[in-house]
Prior knowledge:
- With 280 residues, the protein is α/β, with parallel strands linked by helices.
- The protein folds into two domains: 5-176, NAD(P)-binding Rossmann-like Domain (Rossmann fold); 186-279, ProC C-terminal domain-like fold, CATH 1.10.3730.
- 57% of the residues lie in helices and 12% in strands.
- It has an eight-stranded mixed β-sheet with strand order 3-2-1-4-5-6-7-8, sandwiched between helices.
Amino acid sequence: MNVKISCIGSGNMGTALMKGAVGIAGGGNIGFADAELSKAREAAGLIGSVVYQSNVEAAADANYIFLAVKPQVLRAVLEEIAPPVIERLHQGQMPVLVSMAAGWSIKKIQDIVSARNARDTAPPRVPVARIMPNTPALISLGMIALAASDEVPPEKMRELETILGAAGMVDRVDEKYFDAVTGLSGSGPAFVYMFIEALADGAVRAGLPRDKALRYAAQTVLGSAAMVAQTGKHPAELKDMVTSPGGTTIAGLAALESGAFRGTVMRAVEAAWQRAVELG
Length: 280
């Protein structure tokens, strides 16, 4: 694929997505920019890509400009890169901004870029895609939600899906669901890691060595998730397949219910969702 990709921000998520993109675009067509140049150099060294000296340089010629920065600093980054992006739009180019900032709507991003226009009163609207990946993208098993503005043409969407698909499963979703997606798949890995840790702790309490407890817990969660994904069966049906009358599993399930397990998990997702709403 003959595309150029820049990534402003070189944290785990940006690096994970660029790692996948290397196989699509090639390292020479991918570059990192970061407020700390040493971090950009480190990320670029991991995947054999290039380093931009500034955010403005990163926005100057890439087809896709990934914004892998924290929501709190996104406004400053957008204001910085808006002039070269607007100039490219006036030249008939179509750079696509790809934001992964929780809570930041496509319209808000477009409005900030347009506000920096100094040429005319009706600037062209920048094409914006919004994504919500999660950390399993680091091992190409991410869940990546994708929405885009009307300015992103179908062929660009297909290219973007190919780029993102190297890091995991890509699903187009209406932007109105993004805060809920953030609470579920964006924050969800942390909830699952805590569950795995708790499973292992329970096994250690029962006498299993720590290393084996962690291995068994992780593989149990991995296999169980694959059962849901691959069989198409409802989790409740799969749960019942494991649960024998008067057996060990029903005893454990009763303990989970007494601790309000399901309600607690639901509240965790709701709290993450609410925080995503607040960030907007």
